[in-house]
Amino acid sequence: MTRPARPRTAILISGRGSNMVSLLKAAEDPAYPASFVLAASNRPEAPGLVHAASAGLATLALDHRAFPDRAAFDAALDAGLRAHGIDLVVLAGFMRVLTPGFVEAWAGRMVNIHPSLLPLFRGTHTHAQALAAGVRLHGCTVHFVVPELDAGPIIAQAAVPVRPDDDEDSLAARVLAQEHRLYPAAVALVASGGARLDGDRVVFAAEAVGGDGALLSLPV
């Protein structure tokens, strides 16, 4: 399948969409390789939908509470994405577990950012998990979405030190700052074809990797 020059990209949110804001800011550069055209949410009251509309994106609000089960919600979401001609799906604080059928339908075309250095600390309350475990490094991970929660092949990661005086809020704030740097770069890598899913691993294009093996265009 031929990759679109600038994939039509949907951002899925459940709240304020702070990572969405960072993505839209990055896309103000005409050279950014993804075209963000739709923001969708499972919560009609999500503040991020207002921001998306003000930025010129179409919006789609599907209240998950109005559907009898996850499969019905996912079917409606899938139909909405296809109606808007979406090529790439970006999860940005989308607090829904997607059904295996939906995930498989968008395999290799759906990415997520998770607030931990996967495979450590899957699920929720990751900062509390990190503090309880006593790790010295914490961070965030961008990965392709697979049916197993927070288990998809890793595209990029960013780390922050865990300080002796950290609590959940201070640690979360430093991780979020890295999310806002990492996600636009990682989504650009996927949208441009610099990273793609091949089975259960990520394959990087030669131009995305420097001579020392380091990924280009990602924050350090």
UniProtKB/TrEMBL annotation:
Pfam hit, one: Formyl_trans_N
Keywords: Purine biosynthesis, Transferase
Site feature: Raises pKa of active site His: D150
InterPro entries in the cross-refs: Formyl_transf_N, Formyl_transf_N_sf, GART
Binding site for (6R)-10-formyltetrahydrofolate: R70, N112
Biological processes per GO annotation: 'de novo' IMP biosynthetic process
A GO CC term assigned to this protein in UniProt: cytosol
Catalytic machinery residues: H114 (proton donor)
Residue intervals of the Formyl transferase N-terminal domain: 8-187
CDD domains: FMT_core_GART
Catalyses which reaction(s): N(1)-(5-phospho-beta-D-ribosyl)glycinamide + (6R)-10-formyltetrahydrofolate = N(2)-formyl-N(1)-(5-phospho-beta-D-ribosyl)glycinamide + (6S)-5,6,7,8-tetrahydrofolate + H(+)
Biological or metabolic pathway of the protein: Purine metabolism; IMP biosynthesis via de novo pathway; N(2)-formyl-N(1)-(5-phospho-D-ribosyl)glycinamide from N(1)-(5-phospho-D-ribosyl)glycinamide (10-formyl THF route): step 1/1
E.C. code: 2.1.2.2
Gene3D superfamilies, sorted: Formyl transferase, N-terminal domain
GO MF terms held by the record: phosphoribosylglycinamide formyltransferase activity
Record-listed N(1)-(5-phospho-beta-D-ribosyl)glycinamide binding positions: G17, S18, N19
Similarity annotation: Belongs to the GART family.
Functional note: Catalyzes the transfer of a formyl group from 10-formyltetrahydrofolate to 5-phospho-ribosyl-glycinamide (GAR), producing 5-phospho-ribosyl-N-formylglycinamide (FGAR) and tetrahydrofolate.
Protein name: Phosphoribosylglycinamide formyltransferase
Lineage of producing organism: Bacteria, Pseudomonadati, Pseudomonadota, Alphaproteobacteria, Hyphomicrobiales
Gene this chain is encoded by: purN
